[in-house]
Amino acid sequence: MWLDAIILFFSGFLGGILFILFPQLKNKKFDFILVFSGAYLLSITILHILPEVYAQFHQPYKIGVWILAGFFLQMILGSISSGIEHGHVHSQNHAHLHNLRSAPLILLIGLGIHSFLEGTIVAHPVKAAIHNHSGGILLGIVLHKFPAAIALMAVFFYQNQKIYLAVLYLFLFSLSSPLGLIITTYIGNSAILSINTMALLYALVSGSFLQISTTIFFESSPHHQLEWNRILWTLLGALLAVLIELFL
Fold first, then answer.
1. Burial track 139-167 (b if 16+ CB lie within 10 A, e otherwise)
2. What percent of the chain has pLDDT over 90?
3. Backbone angles phi, psi at 92, to 5 degrees
4. Nearest 5°: CA angle at 119, between 117 and 125?
5. What is the greatest pairwise CA distance in the chain?
6. Which of 60, 128, 167, 243 has the highest count of CB atoms within 10 angstroms of its CB?
7. CA angle at residue 110 from 104 to 115, to 5 degrees?
């Protein structure tokens, strides 16, 4: 658990620090990384998370309600955080970025809740699951959290935030996923919540992952143009998820 928590923390924190050192990270090639991570996250959700949830819950027909709830919950959180968790920053919208400057804590609340929920799923709360590993899920969150941290720091860069404040916000954002992992692991080990309740939490987060990954696809190609580079990166992300599920 502790190693996973450390990985989760630094996947976000290092991403933000790298942007401070190398602001040019937000370029055209960065979009392909987002497409790759979105394809991987979508694939690991379909291949790993959803089968576990449906197999474990005693009333599988009710699971879909919680998946939808997670999907729309993430839409709400995305409106609070301005979609930074998708890894996209629209720097041309200066008025919008100015509004974010006046409420950085609201921005962090939206990102923090989303990031906390990500950490809960790494705890692997569903007992006796089809797969007993969560490495594929952890990798998906790392691939997603790294560009999200870069996007967060890009917002503060466009707002001309003081460096020490930006690093503090980055630290808080990076800490939220490990907290989700640690708290959920404690709850699971202490049997405070039933296995079915934990499965519902798992379903909620899976809906969030579906919303994030599909939004990444839409935002990466706003004009719906066929680009072979994007298709290649999408297939590579999906293929990685398949290989991990087959051989890990």
1. bbbbbbbbbbbbbbbbbbbbbebeeeebb
2. 27
3. -75, -15
4. 90
5. 52
6. 167
7. 115
